[in-house]
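Sequence in, structure out.
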Amino acid sequence: MESQMLTNLVWFIPLLIIIAIWDAIWKTIALWKSARANKLAWFICIAIFNTMGILPIIYILTHRKKD
């Protein structure tokens, strides 16, 4: 029982670290863009809710500058 739990932790911890880095990168980019565009509501939502990068990606894709 203990060896199975240890085996699960071996792959779970690196996965958790990768997800945290993924979220931090997207969140930083989206927070920067929303702050520069004076979008306070988006800034607050992105800062508060932890969505593993989904909300920041949605913001970035929907608020692109169109040339």
